[in-house]
Amino acid sequence: MNTPVKEDRTAGDRLTRYPKHIREDWFGRVYVYLCVALMVVTIFSIVWFIASKGLNPFVSGAIGIPDLLLGHVWKPEGEPPLFGALPFLAGSASVSFIAAAIAAPFGFCAAVFMTQIAPKLGRTVLQPAIELLAGIPSVVYGFVGLSVIVPFLRDNFPGQGFGILAGAIVLSIMILPTVTSIATDALSTLPAGLREGSFALGATRWQTIYRLILPTTLPSLLTGIVLGISRAFGEALAVQMVIGNAPHVPRSLLESAATLTSIITLEMGNTVGGSLHNNVLWSLALILLLMTFLFVFIVRMLERRAKR
Amino acid sequence: MKAKLADRIATGAIIAIAGLIMAILAGLIAYLLFRGLSHVSWHFLTSPPQSFKKGGGIGPQLFNSLYLLVLTMMITIPLGIGAGIYMSEYAKANRVTDFIRLVVEVLSSFPSIVIGLFGLLVFVNLFQMKYSLAAGALALTVFNLPLMVRITEQALRGVPREQKEAGLALGLSKWKTIWSVMLPMAFPAIMTGTILASGRVFGEAAALLFTAGMTTPKLDFTNWNPTDPQSPLNPFRPAETLAVHIWKINSEGRAPDAPEIAAGASAVLIIIVLLFNLGARTLGRAIYRKFTATK
């Protein structure tokens, strides 16, 4: 008879023992920890799933790691099938490095313009323009590349217009915002005394820029360039649209080529899951994943240097 | 004298390059609008695409893009705000926090195609969602989450310390202080960041090729029952978005007016992204003014 009353009292006790603000705190803590845990689980499952698929061809002994990395013939339908990924590695590396080589001086000049030459004009005009460039979707860059840059190259240079150069030009515009914004941050946090000291010694603005500002901010500028290369390396559709997609090691910048991302985009949908061809594409995805880790590592090293 | 000449030449070159960047942007946008807008009409925006005939539109793709954006944001915002609150308010300065920061950094630098492939393995195959809006939304969540976390963290860090201390001093719990005092203060910054992130999601294609798919079933826009396979609202149907459509017609379009459709669709896509950008700026400024009563 008395039991229900007793139970009620214990329930009431529990409520008074854990008043509202403590229960609120519990709720909040559980919520934010769950969100963070989910993020950590996601990244581990990305690595786990892609690695387990991508390592499959090597574990099953179908091909060796050197065959994939150094072989320069990609003939999945051949007899025997050949899976040499060197054309794609060479393609990816050359488009990203050339894109960075174009974007780096542009980005540095834009940053110098915004911080040293015309800060007001830079803030009101150039800065929003570069943010807009960052917002344009990659397929739109691909479309413009396909309908402006490729025909331009075809008319003015030998070849079909498709190739490393077209890809690198498109990518250089895409990574310009990354390079510029990091360079601008680095230049604007430079202590004012450095510049004033240099001017007081009679140096011109250009002397100050290339003898003082450039060396001091070099680690940060390199960070921006590495981030740009990393973005270019992983960019898929814009490059795929203008590079021509011929799986051989390119001998000239104007020859049709292919990248890791372009071959995955093109062939992943057309192969049967579980076949060797399909599994090798996952190995290429694994290479992309490992490159991301490498880029993050380099950026961290550079940031540590920049802080010192 | 030589130094002064070098200075003048260098300054001229830098200004020329800044001008060139402006010209590239202006040329890019002018080209897209000039070539694309002549093809954009009400018919183009509302009718379904044609595979072999002229006169196809982008209606279903436009709807898919917007609907996918809503679905993605419904998942991303609660998760991103939660993790952002952790980073700014709960994380202690120790190795675990350093590790989580590394996780966010790596997650944000994964190429979107890799996220798409992960979505193909896990959401499409393992969870058996097939090519569907739901799988696409989850993949885009993975792609967008680190950005959302960063936006929330920075917005919360921008809240004055006194606000937090006043809340705690009044005897509010830590969670109540964060939820009812700090988050409203951080709201304008979170809002602006979220709209900018939406623009990025709207134009994303590589992560969607193998998750949301490259086809759209025949949709019946009078059927609003979300469980019906013909209904536009069904989250488990395949959905080709506008960005994916642009890619597809450029690489394998067979309609005779494919270049015009690509140009028109690009113009529509870029106008929407520009609207997101401008909207974020004006809205952020307006909310800031309202909340802080500055003029």
What does this structure look like?
The complex is a heterodimer of chains A (308) and B (295). A two-stranded antiparallel ribbon of chain A has the order 1-2. Chain A has 13 helices and 2 strands, in the order ααααββααααααααα. With 308 residues, chain A is mostly helical. Chain A folds into 2 domains: 11-54; 74-307, MetI-like (MetI-like fold), CATH 1.10.3720. Chain B has one domain (40-292): Orthogonal Bundle (MetI-like fold). Chain B is globular, with a radius of gyration of 23 Å. With 295 residues, chain B is mainly alpha-helical. In chain B, α6 (133-157) packs across α8 (174-203) and α8 (174-203) packs antiparallel against α10 (258-292). The relative contact order of chain B is 0.14. The interface between A and B is large, with 85 and 91 residues.
Give the helix/strand layout.
The complex is a heterodimer of chains A (308) and B (295).
Chain A: H1 3-17, H2 20-54, H3 56-59, H4 65-70, E1 74-75, E2 82-83, H5 86-117, H6 119-135, H7 138-156, H8 164-188, H9 192-200, H10 205-234, H11 237-243, H12 260-267, H13 276-307
Antiparallel strand pairs in A: 1-2
Helix pairs in contact in A: 2-13, 5-6, 5-8, 5-10, 5-12, 6-8, 7-8, 7-11, 8-10, 8-11, 9-10, 10-13, 11-12, 12-13
Chain B: H1 2-37, H2 42-46, H3 59-90, H4 95-109, H5 112-126, H6 133-157, H7 161-169, H8 174-203, H9 242-252, H10 258-292
Name the overall outline of chain A: globular
Structural class of chain A: mainly alpha
- Rg of chain B: 23 Å
Q: Can you give the helix content of chain B as a percent range? A: over 70%
CATH architecture title of chain B: Orthogonal Bundle
- What structural class do the secondary elements of chain B suggest? mainly alpha
Straight-line distance between termini of chain B = 50 Å
Strand content of chain B: under 5%
CATH class of the largest domain in chain A: Mainly Alpha
- Enter the CATH topology name of the largest domain in chain A: MetI-like fold
The CATH class of chain B: Mainly Alpha
| Share in β-strands of chain A | under 5%
Radius of gyration of chain A: 27 Å
Total individual domains of chain A: 2
The CATH architecture name of the largest domain in chain A reads Orthogonal Bundle
Oligomerization status of the protein chains: heterodimer
Count of DSSP strands of chain B: 0
- Uncertain stretches of chain B: none
